[in-house]
Amino acid sequence: MKFSQGLGVILGTTTLAIVQYQSVFALTPVQVNDIAKPITVMIGGLDGKGSGVIIAKDGNTYTVLTAHHVVKKAGYGIYELITHDGQKYQMENKAQIVGKLDLALVRFTSSKNYPLAKIADSRTVKEGSTVYYAGFPAETTNQPRNYRFIRADITGRSQNQEGYELSYNGSALPGMSGGPVLNEEGLLIAIHGKAETQSIIIQGVQRTEIVGVQGIPTEKFTNLISNIPDNTQANTQANTTGNNISPTTESTPVIFQKLEALLKAKKWRDADLETWELMKKLTKREWEGWLRFEDVKNFPRQELRKMDQLWVKYSNGKFGFSVQKQIWLDWGGKLDGEPDIDTYVKLSDRVGWRENNDWLSYDSYTFSTNALPGHLPALLGVGSEGGRGILFSLL
User: Fold this and answer.
1) pLDDT at 299 over 60
2) 0.85 surpassed by pTM
């Protein structure tokens, strides 16, 4: 398959992703910040100021997860949520408390498209690992609150009645409570919200000293995601009770049984090649060996959905066209069918299809679950009459 590196990208009513990815898990701090900033919101209210993270969307209603102590007087109806683009939204009347934890769900309505946090199990991150927390500190009275992104290292775990069991070093800045704590893949692993203290005695006087900060790890609220309307399967990478992976309970059509067998056997490269063969067969482009723009635009929807379901199911939500689609949207991609090379390059860096600003060859791809989310399926050749390759991210 010939593949042009200087490619335009078109996102239409059907999309399919191609090229591929590196074996490195960790993103750079700048890349993690690019994920953190658009999902972090500022919260202001009667009894203080905090932050939150967007985790779900139902129609035009967004759900934000935050610390309960930030919005405990939300019934007064005077809280505002301010998104990264400076837009202000009135918080809906009542905060929903999450069990006995210092967590709450709040909502706002907007017709704009904001990305959602993707949630992972924090137990995959060990002591000494690097994490990042974000929010809008209120460091000085009557001064503007500016977004902050802080790097930290996990220092330990403990037991806490309110759920603050993940400890990491860093500054305890007022106003950042409720903000996201992300791992090096840019996945949400905790909600930030409390200073960690210890008592010390100096010259016979007992004092309290701040030694770090704490967050509520995701394993404390594993049932949360399943209780939120229309939370997408790509919104969680953790294999927990809250996973919402596309169901494939119906019998698999004969044409897809080979693909299913390869995926079930974890033969990711063979499954990727079989997906490409199916795409050519379903568009009657086997002889030509590549797809035109119109082939992708008119790709059979039901068959596309079935292939995606199989990829999502057997990768536990890590691979699939729908995972790639969500990443495209997270980076601000539109679904209007217009070329958008800038967003495509960002997506390519995010899923590891490029390394050090260079496109990787197919033999350099990582065909295992060590790959970044959205890495596969990855093989698709599309050409136009002008001879350009066109890449599609899945709808």
Assistant:
1) yes
2) no
